[in-house]
Amino acid sequence: MIKYSDILGLNARAQVYSYPYNKSSGKSKATSKLATKRALKKSQVPVPEIYARFLKPVDVVGFDWSSLPDAFALKPNKGLGGEGIIVIKKRALREVEGRLVKAKDEWITTQKNKVSAEDLNLHVLDILEGAFSMGNVPDIAYIEEYVGRHKALRKFTYRGTPDIRVIVFNKVPVMAMLRLPTKESGGKANLHQGAIAVGIDIATGITTKAYWHGEYIHYKPETKRKLHGIKLPAWTKILETAVAAGEAAELGYYGADVVMHPEKGPMILELNYQPGLSIQLANGAGLRRRLERIKDVEVHDGEHGVRIAKVLFAERFADRVKAEEGVKILNTIEKVKVYSSRRKAIIVRARIDTGAVRSSIDKTLAEELGLLTDDNILWRRRYAYRSASGRESRAVIGVTFKIAGRKIKTSASVADRSRLTTQVLVGRNDLEGFLINPTEFES
Questions:
Q1: Angstrom distance (rounded) from CA 214 to CA 103
Q2: What are the Alpha-L-glutamate ligase-related protein ATP-grasp domain coordinates in residue numbering (predicted)?
Q3: pTM recorded for the entire structure
Q4: Domain 321-437, second-level architecture
Q5: 4-47+149-312 has which fold?
Q6: Strand 359-362 relative to strand 215-217, pairing
């Protein structure tokens, strides 16, 4: 169950994150799909190819629809909620002299409807008149590359193209979900129209739980295909692409919609500077706490941000492990197994301290385990601690340890604990699911 205090609400989203951390130029780009694609393409962030634009009605006159590839998507520039999109999957077949050939002016949509060039012309005119934009403001229509479905997701999707929504803040992907089109949603990956929201573990790219029509489900509707445990391909690349898109569009807090092209890999479909909050339900976790954890962190680049995300926001314990093992009770002093950079482990004494937010590890121990390499230092907290020699900075590194039979991947500050009886301190960020007995010590 999501803690109420961890939930990000509409007002906080706008006042604390969306408006303070997004430049006006970035918000302007995000409200226009074409402007977004121009900015991303300029920065070499992958996007579907644009085949044609319609700025005014005269552009429709004489347009040669037969010059397009067999598959494409016709979209409004400022459409909302997937409205006004027609996705063409293939050309219709026509019988000529006893054999079937591809028609030049008829196509089949992903919904298996037949449309003609005249139908498409009329739809473009509707878009230009603002039929699908907020307030019916005149819009622009465009035709882009058809992405299709990656083979890893094909059996979980009804006809349309699934996408991955990634919430990014301060160059760090903080939460993600897979949106699966259904028969009810008409093959569109839009939750309000009936698509399924599936939470994703940031560290592994494996789906965790699925949310549909106000409740958690285990299987794709009308099938026995499990929706948890799906391994998304090119997961690190997906996260890095989402971060790169925000840098290109000058956004600090946003949702990036990523699609997996079967051959070309991750592509950005669009950006949203006020992304919806149902992603919290899909993941069974609140955004507020995650955002606060990385609010003041100095992040160098997208690769660095993804590394931080995988350490901070990994699923702590699988539901199956919780059910099998129950709640563990820890003493004030416990033995923990700490893993080296080569995945070998040593057992040391650790203090369990709910008064500390973050876990900590002795500097000498971290060096012995090979954990102080540049690629394992997540960031440095400057002058954040007082010592006998004055204020000092500390490195924060990625650490994996096992306690009471549970392996935890987390971040830990590096400190001089040579004068203390324990080489590791376990803070409350890493104590979720445990009970602490303050009167008992390690036996």
A1: 44
A2: 14-295
A3: 0.81
A4: Beta Barrel (2.40)
A5: D-amino Acid Aminotransferase; Chain A, domain 1 (3.30.470)
A6: unpaired
Per-residue model confidence as pLDDT tens for the chain (443 residues): 677 788 999 999 999 999 999 999 999 999 999 999 999 999 999 999 999 999 999 999 989 999 999 999 999 999 887 889 999 999 999 888 889 999 989 999 988 899 999 999 999 999 999 999 888 899 999 999 999 999 999 999 988 899 999 999 999 999 999 999 998 988 888 898 899 999 999 999 999 999 999 999 999 998 999 999 999 999 999 999 999 999 999 999 999 999 999 999 999 999 999 999 999 999 999 999 999 999 888 898 999 999 999 988 887 534 333 333 455 789 999 999 999 988 889 999 999 998 998 999 999 999 999 999 988 999 887 545 554 445 567 899 999 999 998 899 999 999 999 999 999 999 998 998 788 877 655 54
Domain boundaries, the chain: 4-47+149-312, 50-145, 321-437
